[in-house]
Amino acid sequence: MTTAPIPGFPAGFRWGVSTSAYQIEGGADADGRGPSIWDTFAHTPGRIIDGSTGDVACDHYHRHREDVALLAGLGVSAYRFSIAWPRVRPGGTGPVNAAGLDFYDRLVDDLLAAGIDPVATLFHWDLPQPLEDAGGWLNRDTAGHFAEYADLTAARLGDRVKLWITLNEPFIHLSLGHGTGEHAPGRTLLFDSFPAAHHQLLGHGLAVAALRAHSTAPVAIANNYSPVVRHGDTDADHAAAAAYDALHNHLFTDPLLGRGYPDGFDPGVVRDGDLAVIAAPLDVLGVNYYNPTGVRAPEAGSPLPFELVPLEGYPRTAFDWPVVPDGLRDLLVGLRDRYGDALPPIQITEGGCAYDDVPDADGRVSDPDRIAYLDGHLRAVRAAIDEGVDVTGYFVWSLLDNWEWAEGFTKRFGLVHVDFATGTRTPKSSYAWYRSQVGRE
User: In the record, which residues are listed under signal peptide (predicted)?
Assistant: First the structure.
């Protein structure tokens, strides 16, 4: 499959790929790493669809130089990875694990030697289990412990990391991890989970100050966004769509950009001064986009003020997510219109798709659907830039097929195919296609 070249992007546009620690690293017991909530969750029978765990995953902990070589061959200018809090500070507090920091020190140096900017995410959902035992993000103390972890990590790596991301998708961690229980830590609190929203944001704000004490690199947060498509035109349908939009798209952005919490959303644990800490100026807003969400009024007696409904009429990924590239353009323009001058430059910190990629008889992996997906979404970014939105980078999710949370090894997002039995990496046709796009300005 071939596609016409995408029109040029602005000078200095950052082309990258993303991964996360628990999904690729493995090395669960290596060199003093402690347990995370995902270790506990994955080892609980019935939690993961295929019964797998991230104990080995892609074994990136032992094969990271092979993966840096893949990044160099891809030609990207940046690599977004996450640092595993329990590898750096196994108890969440207390002693630092020097061997854990040494691993990230080697990774950062190897990336720089390959001409690739290290982009480090501090929290991609793998909270140290001892902190969860003490209440996790429902406990205000966790925000302070997160800032301490940010401080010690930046003290070691802050002279070389080129972009810091504090939290990845706090809405998803709130909703699936604390609201419905589909993700670790498996709490099912629905709207009683809101303290975990506030404490994540407070931890972000405290971490921003800690990072800037050791590093001149810009600081960001990566939020997940999903444009809302209303089904129905009753007053109840309009109210349901507005409620979901506020929850998914505004709850974690309004406070960051100085607006406080949206009307109707009170975490109940806000103290004087908290909102000022949360609204510490951002250098970049990370935007993760996969698909829009269909919403209508709920049935009578529902515990939620909305009902989610499938979006019909679009191609679908192996996750059964609709492929709607123009939703990304709508999202980016909408962020610009809502926040105006308060909106910092945007980088797309995740964008990608799962398909059932299988090597052919010659060992090649052709994934034309992924190429079409990425082509469409990059064109949507280009269209948003043409409409005046300041977008300065795009990171594909993901470099490697990985361990996909509750879906285990059943969903493949990578530009590189991984044989999970042997660890063998095989670049897919999308790897070559993306290589042809990067660096063209």
Answer: none
Q: What is the reported pTM?
A: 0.98
Catalytic pick among 148, 350, 387, 441: 350
Residues 78 and 394: beta-carbon distance below 8 Å: no
* 25 catalytic per annotation: no
62 assigned binding-site residue: no
CA distances (Å), 413 to each of 111, 337, 386, 420, 428, in order? 22, 31, 28, 14, 11
Active site residue 312: no
Instruction: From 363, 354, 367, select the one nearest 429 (Cα to Cα).
Output: 367
Asked whether the beta carbons of 189 and 195 are under 8 A apart, the reply is no
42 SS3 class: helix
Q: Which band of pLDDT confidence, cut at 50, 70 and 90, is reported for residue 4?
A: confident
Q: Find out whether 23 is annotated in a ligand binding site.
A: yes
Of 25, 66, 132, 169, catalytic: 169
- pLDDT score for 7: 79
Confidence at residue 8, expressed as pLDDT on a 0 to 100 scale: 84
